[in-house]
Design goal:
This protein has 325 residues and is α/β, with parallel strands linked by helices. 45% of the residues lie in helices and 18% in strands. Strand 1, helix 2 and strand 2 form a beta-alpha-beta unit.
Length: 325
Amino acid sequence: MYRILEIKSRATIAGAALFAATWATGFAQAQTYPNKPIEMTVLFGSGSGADLTARVLADGMSKRLKVAVPVVNRTGGGGAVGYTYVKDQPANGYSIVWNSDSVITAYHLGNMKFDYRAFTPVARVSLEVPALAVRNDSPWKTLTDLMEAAKKAPDTIKIGISGIGSFTHLASAALFAAGNAKIRYIPYGEGNATVELLGGRIDAALQWPSVFKSSVDAGKLRILAVTSAKRIALLPDVPTAKEQGYDVDYVIWRGIAGPQGMKPNVVATLERAIKATIESPDFAAAGAKLGFTPAYLGSKGFGELIAKTELEDAKIMKELGLAKQ
């Protein structure tokens, strides 16, 4: 009888020890972030400017966090498909989104019922500056030439944009409003700016400089202006709109966000990895090649920037008659 009790007692102790060890391991894993891959949703297609920059960022984050950071392209609805997916994931830091002001435009276009407040801002990563290009055989040698032509024949000059309500649409509206010129907006679809422009289906196009660079170097396109306050490294000889007398400073930011409710320690871990990546020589080299400017902002500053952009973009979208929310 004593022997049976002793065996039961030992079994109980062993079971308790196993439970304690398992619980301790689980607790330690829960306290250690990250301990598995972090999925990064990109809202635009593979090979796009946003996608290429995201992959450079993901690679740098992976090296610093010691876990994989796979990029998954979830396109559609001007970003609404990807934002909806990430919003519905657990706020544990294992699902993040490579976001931009599309979180604002997709909402105001009516493509999604939630706004930027459905997400936790993590960090701003980069800035990108749109450029206005024409064919090299165009009669317009300067931005003023194009503005004056648009004034003489309102609503006839066709300016290509990525899509209705896209950032390039809003930037075009801001640019031509500064010149009191009325033009026609022609959506050409993601990645088709150069083809549409060279084919003569549009008169000019506003897009990321890297899209135009090879055609500019080949003497097929000419860039009239960039919409930032200062000239950009990729196009040092191209004047800004401000230099030519048009009060425009319109650039797009890109960054990382996650579902609403992410814990501060998780956000801080991601912030550190992103900051270290952005400050690396590899990221700077990628920026020079792809045409973006590394521009780190932490969670608090990034959140304030998003709220400010919301007011600016909503105003322009209302003026264009695009706001449905």
